[in-house]
Design goal:
By secondary structure, the chain is of the alpha/beta class. The chain has one domain: Rossmann fold (3-Layer(aba) Sandwich). It contains 15 helices and 10 strands. The protein has an 8-stranded mixed sheet, sandwiched between helices. Strands 6-10 form a two-stranded parallel ribbon. Helix 14 links the parallel strand 8 and strand 9 (286-294). Helix 5 crosses helix 6 (133-146). The N and C termini lie far apart (117 Å). Its EC number is 2.7.10.2. Keywords: ATP-binding, Kinase, Membrane, Nucleotide-binding, Transferase, Transmembrane, Transmembrane helix, Tyrosine-protein kinase. It comes from Candidatus Spyradosoma merdigallinarum. Pfam families: AAA_31. Residues 132-266 form the AAA domain.
Length: 332
Amino acid sequence: MRVIGSVSSIVSILDPAVVPTRASNKNFALNAIFGFVAGIAVGAGIIVLLSFFDDRIKSSRDIESFLGIPLLGTIARLRGVKSPVDKAYIAVNGKDRAATEAFRAVYSALKIGEVSGPAKVLLVTSTTPSEGKTFVSTNLALTYAAHGDRVILVDADLRLPNVGNSLGLKEESEKHGLIRYIEGEISLDDAILREVRQNFDVLPSNAFCKNPTQVINGKKFRAMIEELKTRYDRVIIDTPPLGAVSDVLNLLPLCDGVIYTVRFNTVQRSMIRNNLHRIQESKVPVFGAVMNQMAQETARYYVSSGQYYGAYSRYYHGARAKEVEVRIKADS
């Protein structure tokens, strides 16, 4: 006890504790600036990192450098045009002057590229559903017709035909159409919808088809395309998306070249490259790409690849209840 007492007796308070009334750091402003700059740097780094891993198509450079094909033209997202039928005729109805000029630019690019003669049969496809291939094929056909070519648009998307509906010809398509011709119910002349507009005829598909590969590879279908080539200056074929089904590969031997529809900021470059490689293996030229739905504003940075598979699933199964199996004769 005596030791403890002796220790406590020599302890004294040198400076009393005082509650601080201001920050002790004299460089607060400098630290605040440093933190602000660091925050910007981190944010920029995150954006760069996301851009590095996001390989969706966003520019003409993506088309020409990464995919290695020409960009034929870009179609901006239509504003103020609500009707699907108006969109189908946008190249010629005057409702969006920019879209009209854009399709004229695509037409001009294709004409300039015809060094060895006109390409009579053009195939229009895409990677995934909902990229606007039918929109592009329809308006490109209308643009050719407006320049004086005799044009027929063939709906060869037999799994999910939409050309007739998009043009406002649903009832006419059900009475005429490709499937009825293949089955022998009507003649080719009766299957075609004539003069939908000046110089513009349509061969719709009047039913959802269970056996499209068999139809496309049949003698009657192939002879039909050869016959159409003798009647028209241009035969434009709207096809299924290549990333969803392989029907396009069976159509390639019938065409002179491919026009590839790419929706802005939607599909990954790697997916498109794979499909282009499949086309190029057939030795059929890819004339170029049309970038559709080009937007001024930046879209969301990340799209789950699961959306693609969901689109495929809807494409395969969405209309299955309405499918019919086309009756093909042994020699067709």
